[in-house]
Amino acid sequence: MMFAALGRWGVRRLASVSALLLGWVTLTAHVGTNQVVLEGRAGGYPIRVFIDPPGVVPAQVPIMVRVLDGAPTRVTVRAAQWNVGTRGAPPAEDAAPVPGDPGVWSHSLWIMTASSYAVYVRVEGAAGSGEVVVPLQTSATRMLGMKQGMGFMLAGLGGLLVAGLLTIIGAAKREATLPSGERPSDTQVRAGRRAMLVTAALLTVVLLGGWRWWDVEERAYRRRMLRPIAANPEVRALPAGARADGATAMLSIAITDPLWRTNRYPQLLPDHGKLMHLFLVDAMRDSATIAHLHPLRIHADTFVTALPTLPAGRYVLFGDLLFQSGTTRTIVDTLELSTTAPRAGVRFTASGDSLPLLNADDAWRTAAAVAFGADAPLAGGGTMRLVADGPLAVGRDLRLTVAVRDADGRESMLEPYMGMAGHAMVMRVDAGVFVHLHPMGTASMAAQAQLARAERGDTASVAPLEATVGDDGRHTMHEMAGPPAMPAAAVAAPAFPFAFPAAGDYFVFVQVRRRGVIETAAFRTTVKAARADAVR
Q: What is the Cα 100 distance to its own chain's centre?
């Protein structure tokens, strides 16, 4: 594997290169991909839906539905824009079975506008009929280029069309009124040439106007392309007397994006009970460090969190946000942590008991990453193992299954962690891909519920968890909706449906709750490019 060959020098070089990638990796909902994988149940049929938007709009968006058990007779798909609903959407379209891949149905839907959509996947058969709502966001993240050979061919064909048109115009002016077999006079020849010159001038004006129109449309398309949310992370010292469960510093994330500051983003929506899921990752060394924190919103533009004591180094920062349109965005930046004292916390003047503390859902760990299939030691004793149900190749429909065992070798029963059986973070080693996974897939359950509410016409806003600063400088907490409901019974061996979007070397961090403690393990693997004949 590449991990062994990189060495310390190589990974440090990658750390500096990863900073250069931040200009483009933030252009997607997660990082480096807009793929959606969702596992659910439609009537009596368990299904897994895979959607891979092409990154351009308008476009045909391919949708793959894998029926995990049973043989339905019909599968339909339908996309409805979040603020329009099915009342203004085209009718459902039939998916077709994929030859040679039993249980898989596919269809492509035309998406004409960059927006958030609810994709309705309906399955019908002897086991009953049902529907699954899949949150999908489409955005222009790239421009399709033209191959040089195609450009030369089109230019040549265009030249032939222009030459043919000029020839026809000249001949029509010169010979249209001549009797059959009579030669045109010099006056008629000159008239034909003048007609060709006038036509050539008009065509030049038209072509130059078309060129200018194309440039205007291209610039407008570039302006509509998804842009990163600009933010400024900063480490500051805790105010004197502040208590933050042993933390010695605060992390402030100030959003400086002009669209954000002028309220042109939809209102934030809590996801798993948190307005922001923040990940600090330093995987550019032999021991990988990850911190999963949940900053508190103390101002419309500012989030803060107590910062646990982490090894010094350069961290990549990922901040997941969910909007009430169902859209998810990820703030990406880098953060340098050192052993020196941070700057004085002049911005935070509230008393210590009103500062955001590290809570029971925050977790961080530094540990050696092990290969897929190997046992990763856990801080609380025992091991965690991560395996895939197929070859690790780009675009392959996979399930990443977790097995946790106690120190005596017996299978551990896991408790819900923020409403889920577990959480996984997939990051390519160069930070070009980052995805926050759940056992239902990459889609957000809160976004799914919000789209369902919008379809019902329920416009009631969801109260987020945030803090407002009063005249006395203290923070007042506001109640928010809780995390999605999950059965209280313990679970074992959670699995994460996923499809790796690009080749490369990856880290996969898995977090579960066991006996009230959040356990974190790190795994590494290499994902190969898919073969042309591979079947998902």
A: 30
Question: Domain span at residue 375?
Answer: 2-29+226-527
pLDDT band (50, 70, 90) for residue 345: very low
What's the rounded Cα separation, in Å, for the pair 369 and 22?
Answer: 24
Contact 442, 36 (CB under 8 A): yes
pTM as predicted:
0.80
Residues 341 and 202 in one domain: no
Residues 355 and 476: beta-carbon distance below 8 Å: no
d(CA 122, CA 132): 6
Residues 49 and 121 in one domain: yes
Q: What is the mean pLDDT of residues 278-305?
A: 88
Give me 349's structure tokens. Answer: 């003047």
Tens-digit pLDDT profile for residues 366-398: 999 999 999 999 999 999 999 999 999 999 999
Calculate mean pLDDT across residues 174-199: 89
List, as one string, the DSSP characters of 490-524.
-B-S-EEEE---S-EEEEEEEEEEETTEEEEEEEE
Residues 192 and 120 in one domain: no
Amino acid, res. 405: R
Q: Which of 195-199, 219-223, 505-509 has the lowest mean pLDDT?
A: 219-223
Residue 277 in any domain: the answer is yes
Structure tokens at 396: 């392959």
Minimal CA–CA distance to 196: which of 160, 163, 159?
163
Whether 115 is in a domain gets the answer yes
Measured CA to CA, the distance from residue 161 to residue 165 in angstroms comes to: 6
